[in-house]
């Protein structure tokens, strides 16, 4: 099948974008730390585990972390505190995988996630991270031009990519000249090429691509990527990348990774802020049973799942 990808050889790399402007109830235990990373840690029956801070980028105090079911949970007093911890978490994983295999494959989402990554473009990370090893992908994308305000690429470029020296040939955006179905097929072809060339690992358990880190947000309806509650795409289990033309949230046409790809990840961070998302957070982490699970409840990676919540998003726990 012919392909018209915007990637590195034999694919064309995505050029820089000069047209874009740079620009039960669960008790809480309060851990008062000696710096700005003061946060509340959810106390579950499995108990509290301390984060050793053994990574390359160290904070001045330990952060408590808790486990529940499929994931670990951190709750922060503010989104700013959350972003400090998320930067360290991401930088440590980047350092780990770069030393282990010479590359770091990271998947971004849209929404407020890019804002929460803002500490990565500040010291010490902006100068200390080996950005040359990063390969950047999107878990979903709106089928719009890259300079459109709805574009997840534009959001990431303005708030993150334009501020760090990741090689443009390692930033894998969709071909926005294609319609939704063609763009999804094109992106899957790209992933398969990168698997074949050993840039992206493969899950031994599933055979799907295994990204080092997937940074996910969540919508107020509990959707992740462009996988929406009640939509048939949540059950897609063969394709790596698929498309949607009737998204309940505009714009209607999008491409998205499927759950088999999402759940083959080595690490997933679910970053959720705001009281408007407290309901789905409670559905996913509370003690109740839901016969029709929300998409966010279907996130269950092979590796580690960490929830990064501000206190408003955790207010119903």
From TrEMBL:
Pfam families from the xrefs? Answer: Glucosamine_iso
Q: Which superkingdom does the taxonomy of this entry point to?
A: Eukaryota
Q: What class of enzyme is it?
A: hydrolase
Note the SUPFAM superfamilies from the entry. NagB/RpiA/CoA transferase-like
A Gene Ontology biological process annotation? Answer: carbohydrate metabolic process
What residue range is the signal peptide?
A: none
Q: Which CDD domains match?
A: 6PGL
Q: Which residues form the Glucosamine/galactosamine-6-phosphate isomerase domain?
A: 78-307
Entry GO CC: cytoplasm
**UniProt EC number:** 3.1.1.31
Q: Which InterPro entries match?
A: 6-phosphogluconolactonase_DevB, 6PGL, Glc/Gal-6P_isomerase, NagB/RpiA_transferase-like
Reaction(s) catalysed (UniProt annotation): 6-phospho-D-glucono-1,5-lactone + H2O = 6-phospho-D-gluconate + H(+)
Could you list this entry's UniProt keywords, alphabetically sorted: Hydrolase
Annotated pathway, please? Answer: Carbohydrate degradation; pentose phosphate pathway; D-ribulose 5-phosphate from D-glucose 6-phosphate (oxidative stage): step 2/3
Gene Ontology MF term list: 6-phosphogluconolactonase activity
Q: Which NCBIfam families match?
A: pgl
Q: Which family does it belong to?
A: Belongs to the glucosamine/galactosamine-6-phosphate isomerase family. 6-phosphogluconolactonase subfamily.
Protein name per Swiss-Prot or TrEMBL: Probable 6-phosphogluconolactonase
Q: Which organism is it from?
A: Hibiscus trionum (Flower of an hour)
């Amino acid at each position: 099948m012919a392909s018209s990808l915007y990637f590195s050889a034999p694919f064309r790399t995505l050029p820089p974008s000069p047209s874009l402007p740079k620009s039960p109830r669960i008790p809480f235990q309060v851990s008062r730390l000696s710096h700005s990373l003061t946060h509340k840690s959810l106390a579950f029956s499995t108990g509290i585990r301390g984060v050793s801070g053994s990574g390359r980028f160290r904070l001045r105090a330990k952060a408590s972390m808790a486990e529940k079911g499929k994931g670990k949970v951190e709750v922060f007093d503010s989104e700013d505190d959350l972003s400090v911890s998320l930067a360290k978490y991401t930088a440590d994983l980047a350092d780990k995988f770069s030393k282990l295999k010479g590359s770091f494959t990271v998947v971004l989402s849209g929404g407020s996630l890019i804002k929460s990554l803002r500490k990565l473009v500040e010291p010490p990370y902006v100068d200390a991270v080996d950005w040359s090893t990063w390969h950047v992908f999107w878990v979903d994308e709106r089928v719009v031009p890259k300079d459109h305000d709805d574009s997840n690429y534009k959001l990431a470029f303005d708030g993150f990519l334009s501020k760090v020296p990741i090689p443009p040939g390692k930033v894998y955006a969709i071909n926005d000249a294609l319609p939704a179905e063609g763009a999804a097929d094109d992106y899957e072809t790209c992933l398969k090429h990168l698997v074949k060339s050993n840039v992206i690992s493969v899950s031994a358990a599933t055979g799907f691509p295994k990204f080092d880190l997937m940074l996910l947000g969540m919508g107020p309806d509990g959707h992740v990527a462009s996988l929406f509650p009640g939509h048939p795409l949540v059950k897609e289990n063969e394709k790596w990348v698929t498309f949607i033309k009737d998204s309940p949230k505009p714009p209607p046409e999008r491409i998205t990774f499927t759950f088999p790809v999402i759940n083959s990840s080595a690490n997933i961070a679910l970053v959720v802020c705001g009281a408007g998302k407290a309901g789905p957070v409670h559905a996913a982490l509370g003690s109740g049973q839901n016969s029709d699970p929300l998409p966010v409840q279907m996130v269950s990676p092979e590796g580690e799942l960490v929830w990064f919540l501000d206190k408003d998003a955790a207010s119903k726990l």
